Amino acid sequence: MFDVAIVGAGILGLAHAYHLARAGKKVVVFERSAKAEGASIRNFGMLWPIGQPLGERYETALRSREHWLHVLGEAGIWHEQTGSLHLAYADDEAAVLQEFSFPNTLWLSAAQVHEKTRGIRSKNLQGALWSPTEICVDPREVIATLPAFLTERYGVTFHFGTTVFGYSHPGLSTSAGAFQSAQLIVCSGHELAMLYPAALAEHALTLCKLQMMRTTPQPGNWRLGPMLAAGLTLAHYESFQSCPSLAALKARLHAEYAEYERYGIHVLVSQNGHGELTLGDSHEYDQEISIFNNEQIDTLVLNYLATFLEAPHCQIASRWQGFYLKHKTQPWLIAHPEDHVTLVTGVGGAGLTLSFGLAERVTKELIET
Ligand SMILES: Cc1cc2nc3c(=O)[nH]c(=O)nc-3n(C[C@H](O)[C@H](O)[C@H](O)COP(=O)(O)OP(=O)(O)OC[C@H]3O[C@@H](n4cnc5c(N)ncnc54)[C@H](O)[C@@H]3O)c2cc1C
After folding, report:
1. Both 31 and 173 in a single domain?
2. Closest approach atom of ligand 1 to CA 162
3. Do 46 and 92 sit in the same domain of this protein?
4. pTM surpassing 0.85?
């Protein structure tokens, strides 16, 4: 008999397992695939507190960051405290960034920006908002390494290649047979339909598809430095909504970048420990989603990228798509569809950033009982 069974070995499942096992609970994780291949392995690897509005979400992101640093250090996983730069190439972008009031951030002149990174274009650069808080991880390494670490350090049991079909307290039905657990936490990412289909309709969740690319390693140990965002991102993240100049910037972007708006494109860049640049992304929702990738989206991303990135090359080595569920009005969904069951999903594009902080909140009650 386990204290807690977890569905999904994506980052939310792993973060819940970490907190529970550290507190002495007997934890088992079931992952349908031979290794988790959902959103958690398909992202930029950006731990990105600056994308969270001040208040509960930002506090959760910072708490998460502390846990991340602890876990990454303990497990010996590559990471880099790169910080981030939001680049301004137009007056209206500079105006928004200069109005933006956020802890630890600093407006840098164009000359100061060039001291932080050698990877950007100088032409028309007005300056950038520097934030030291963001951390880059390699999602493939994190998702591959953490399960073994959690087993060795904290005694978590993993069953990979095992699908959970259903739960009737305390019985768990899986493709590897029956198990027993006092509690179930479902961290199945966007795949809620199999276990708790009603939650999809009940809880205002929207499905989002994103297109991503990765370059081959940059030559000669070339490093990007801070992770980069630019003008389009200012219209994307809620954090910037309090800036009075945002409306004017959005109006210009709407006029000049209609195709980008249509596909929800804003452009971010990170660089992993192998020197590869991870590039993206787009946002298509619900009925807009096609299983086929749209080449036009990748072209738009690369064209916008060329307006600010000056890397040795952008030779694309791989392209993929990812999916997540996003709650339409709340930062995440924590629901109890029946006794002893907790669903945690709907974190949208911030699941990596929020994971350990959110899991700490969810597991607090279970640990105390
Ligand atoms: C392209 C992309 C880029 C992103 N970039 C970032 C970023 O840079 N920073 C950031 O903070 N966030 C980012 N995100 C968001 C973040 O990746 C997600 O919010 C987060 O990974 C969600 O984690 P999860 O564990 O809930 O889901 P997932 O990683 O999807 O894991 C769910 C797991 O559950 C398993 N599963 C489902 N059903 C069952 C079942 N019945 N039985 C057994 N197993 C089951 C699946 O196989 C899967 O492995 C990005 C997302 C995408 C798609």
Report:
1. yes
2. 43
3. no
4. yes
